[in-house]
Amino acid sequence: MKIGLMGAGVGGLIALMIHTNGTLGNYTNVYFSSFVVHIIATIGVLAILPIVKSKTDETVELPFYYYCGGILGSLIIVLNNISFKELGVSVTVALVFFGQVVISLFIDSYGLLNMKKIPFNKRKIPGLLLITIGVFAMTLM
Amino acid sequence: MEILFVLAAFIAGGCIIISSTLNAQMAKRVGAYKSALINNVLAAFTALIILIILYGGFSREVAALKIAPLWSLAGGLLAVAIVVGSNIIIPKIPVVHTVLFIFSGQFLIGILIDAINNIPISYGKVVGFLCIIAGLLYNVYVDKAESKAI
Question: Where are the domains of chain B?
């Protein structure tokens, strides 16, 4: 449950960030806003890196593409922006969320990307249906 | 044609998860903070390339930075906390639960920000949110019951 609350906390920070980045994007443009935000974040991490300690494990072997998540991070903004202009905010947000749920279920079910494999359980179908109904209600009502 | 825009949003959602999972896995090897550093450096570089391709430069934007409120730059610091936090959470629980927990917090703070900015919240949003939370809690419960059975 502690992890769940932490997750919700991260979500709260994301909502704040969408607001601050959106504001910055209104003054400039979304890509410039993203660039500036990532530069500030880079400086921020560099500043705290000497102070913080984190667990590392040199024995973990990863192919090079595991280091490329950041590239995807910026490409997402382009995709988001494309659909946003055509579909509007709430539909885009709902579809992005839906994409997240589907892909994360896929990763869990097959244990992709080095994650623990959690085979799909049929008993979860009612929960997923509720989530789908929720996404539709948020978008259409 | 519209299906392409639908697909773009859906793929964006998938990419968010793939990107976060890759980062979290990298964090196992190099630590949550170094992983966040690599992530941000690459993201900044990619954003710069996109910016140059689409806008050809950014002199107007740099000038606009002076009139943008200082707090609008806070996203940089929030991004650090978000990436480090995700790096810690993702390896510990099923990815789909991470998605839903993050979504809940995002939604709640989102309506709070809307309320502060006088944007009304729709009935459907509240109903939809409650359905999503109910579905999430139900599935977390199924997982818990299942792991106890093993």
Answer: 1-92, 93-150
